[in-house]
Amino acid sequence: MMSMLTKKIHCEDAHDYFKQVEQMGIRSWVYRGHSRFADDGPNNWKLESSLDRFLRNHQGKAIRSSSRYPRERSLINRFRGAAHIHLGHLPDASDKLTWLALMQHYGSPTRLLDFTFNPATALYFALRESGKGQGPYSIHALHLDSVR
Question: Burial code of 102-128, b = ≥16 C-beta within 10 A, e = fewer?
Answer without folding.
Answer: bbbeeebbbeeebbeeebeebbebbbe
